[in-house]
Amino acid sequence: MRLSRRVLLAAPLAVAFRDDTRARLDRFDWSRLDPQDDEAWLQLRALFDLDPHGTSFNHAGLSPSPRAVREAMAAQVARADRDPSRVIWREQDHELEAVRERLAALLGCRSEELALAPNATYGLHTAILGLPLRAGDEILTTAHDYPRGRNAMRQRERRDGTVTVEVPLATPPEPPDAVAAAILAKVTARTRLAVLSQMTYLTGQLLPVARIAPELAKRGIPLLVDGAHGLGLLPDTVPALGGAFYTACLHKWLMGPIGTGVFAVQGNWLDKLWPLHPGEEDLDRRITKFEQGGTRPAAPFLALREALDLHDRLGAARKAARLQVLRERLATPLLAGPGVRQCGSLDPQRCRALLVLEFTKAEPKALAAWLWREHRVHVTTAVDAGLRALRLSPHVFTTTAEVDRLASILARVARDGI
To answer: Angle at CA 223, nearest 5°, toward 160 and 173?
Structure first.
């Protein structure tokens, strides 16, 4: 009987929950969030349910959502379970339009250009596999772009005889003008698509997308921008980046649920791109043709409203400033001694959020396993494009005590190995 009552009240509770969330956010003293003030950021940490037995430094891979997001999603799932075919298809699916409009406003594009996608990979695969190409046509990218996108390019090679052109990137990164010149130098008469990350997954390097896009557009070459690591952290809008296509997941710096992402298509390219999942012919000129993957839950996207509420109050600039303080604090003692090489840069004009380090006396995968086994510190590795490094990414709620502890552990590794 108790369970039935909770299910019956799920929809009203979702509304009441949102009101309570907003009230708590309104009471929060946002003016205290100075990037250097650890005590102020502890207030924000209280909005999350973090693992009390371990510390993560891989938030650029997956971020926890605030408790409010998880509870809102649970309320929407319970609401749908009362009568799934009616609630999901007749109610929740229509409520997604408000979420689409809010995401479009965040990205600076029209809602008619924005599809709700499960993740960034969905957008990568849609553009790479859906653009009409012939044998010999070239897809231009870099060696630091996301492997799932490059896998799609390799499949296109096998399927259609296209050619993938990968531009190598130096570590530490070169100045943006030099990077732009190196990428544009690889454009040929056969280039039909360029795929570039706004911020690379390997080192957090900011690629000069806005400098490259106009030059590609002059030659009629569409650009697919992978914004997975930029959305929620960098201020760039889709129009400012200048690509024909844009894709991002929302489970990193935006702190939304897993299973939420966006895929934006500039209007004049909409009818030139085939979707992964076919829809009716009358959808050919509509953005929703990219949402025809079958039945999907609406709950994760409806819970985005809680994540967007937090983002609106916190802001990308505050997040970026806090992450810069934390990665500088982590890097400074490690880079002061021998045995450590930085693969990225602490210059926020070149790299953001990530600290990528190679250790002379420790192989990265073994070191990552040892850090968890011995110290309950979770990290990931950067072992692509010639790198053999740890990739470390704190979040805004990471404490300076956690940073200092990891720095102390890794300083001993640099000196003695594991």
So the answer is: 105
